[in-house]
Design a protein that fits this description.
Keywords: Oxidoreductase. With 250 residues, this protein is α/β, with parallel strands linked by helices. Helices cover 43% and strands 16% of the residues.
Length: 250
């Protein structure tokens, strides 16, 4: 099975650290030309430097993934540099727990929705036309196991990620006729800088005891599946929600 991505252009959002960085490096290692989109241009460039050292080909895209004007400029830069788009990985987002419904901070709720859901909608809206013009491609949406659970205090984040699952299916319905395939990935607990800010060591140990090998996920654990999805081998996989987790991880 050949999942070589040589010549394909893939943009990864939220790619300065964590899952996004791991996916950008992994896709580049398989031959993809990678657009590294992040709010912090210096950190995006640092990932580009890592990719070029592989060696690989990459482009820093400084943009807030939920800012339509900034994303439109990133699309234009990708188009001018590479002339098309084959893949988009909507990974940008921020985790938030510990906010019960009755204690909801509406401003914080809005920020969680903006970071996770609005960013995915904006990037889909702006990048998909370039993908369609290129003959189609793959959009991967990074969801979360929280979207399938009823964890107390998680309504804002879980609600945003549940909407991502629906968004992937809806975009498939709307764009499959243009050759655009979609998948929502539902990772279990994955160790990232953002996750470490809100999850205790005790919780990590408890979840790890239920995982294969006694450990929770690492960003690199998602690289193989995303590489497969962005390849031509996965051409018949679309509109689905794929869980990358044991049955229980809370």
């Amino acid at each position: 099975m050949d999942v070589n991505l040589s010549g394909k252009v893939v943009v990864v959002t939220g790619a300065a650290q964590g899952i996004g960085r791991a996916l950008a490096l992994g896709l580049a290692a398989e031959g993809a030309r990678v657009g590294v989109l992040a709010r912090d241009g210096k950190r995006a460039q640092a990932v580009v430097d890592e990719i070029e050292a592989l060696p690989g080909e990459a482009l820093a895209l400084e943009a807030d993934a939920a800012d339509e004007t900034a994303v439109a400029a990133a699309v234009d830069l990708v188009d001018r540099t590479w002339g098309g788009l084959d893949g988009l990985v909507n990974n940008a987002g921020r985790m938030r727990t510990g906010m019960p419904v009755l204690d909801t901070d509406v401003a914080e709720l809005g920020e969680i929705l903006r970071s996770n859901l609005v960013s995915a909608v904006v990037c889909t809206k702006r990048f998909a036309p370039l993908m369609i013009r290129s003959g189609g491609g793959r959009i991967v949406y990074l969801s979360s196991a929280a979207s399938l659970q009823a964890n107390a205090g998680g309504s804002a984040y879980a609600g945003a990620k549940a909407a991502i699952n629906s968004l992937a299916a809806i975009v498939h319905t709307e764009l499959a006729g243009h050759g655009v395939r979609t998948t929502a990935l539902v990772p279990g607990l994955t160790v990232t800088p953002g996750m470490r800010e809100v999850v205790t060591d005790e919780h990590l140990e408890r979840v790890a005891s239920r995982y294969p090998g006694g450990r929770v996920g690492q960003p690199e654990d998602l690289v193989g599946l995303v590489t497969f999805l962005c390849s031509d081998v996965a051409a018949h996989v679309s509109g689905s929600v794929l869980a990358v987790r044991p049955p229980v991880d809370r």
